[in-house]
Hints:
Elements lengths: L12 H12 L4 H8 L3 H12 L4 H31 L3 H21 L14 H22 L4
Helix pairs in contact: 1-2, 1-3, 2-3, 4-5
Amino acid sequence: MATTSKRPTRWTSMDDAIWDARIRQRMTWREVGNEVGMSFSQARARFYKRMEYITPAEVEEMRAEENGKLDEQERHLLLVMAQARQEGQYTAAVAALNGLERVAGRRAKLNGLDQPIRHEVSITGEEARAEIDATLDAYLLGVTDAGSVD
């Protein structure tokens, strides 16, 4: 039986500092650890523990921060692509274009523009068992009749 934990009513100032350093200030885990006076792995563990209780407002804040990071990456890649084209370095221009495509894909996923593909399965457990049995019977029949697998 799975246990459910209650959302803490208040986070410690350390948890808030880790959240602020990682989300708002965009620090690396090592920088976060140095900022709050603990190892980067401890800071990361506390951050992800807090993530278990994230609120919709915090999700929107994180989404806005991630979109900001993607904006920065996009601007940088556009500059790289323009400079590479100007210098006739078409391999670098294509690499930047590929980077832009990855940024666009990440942005679409982040903002829910790419819907997950849903598959409809219309077979029951009994039908599946019958199909597996028939396949195994045919396989075994081929082995016993021919002495080897076809």
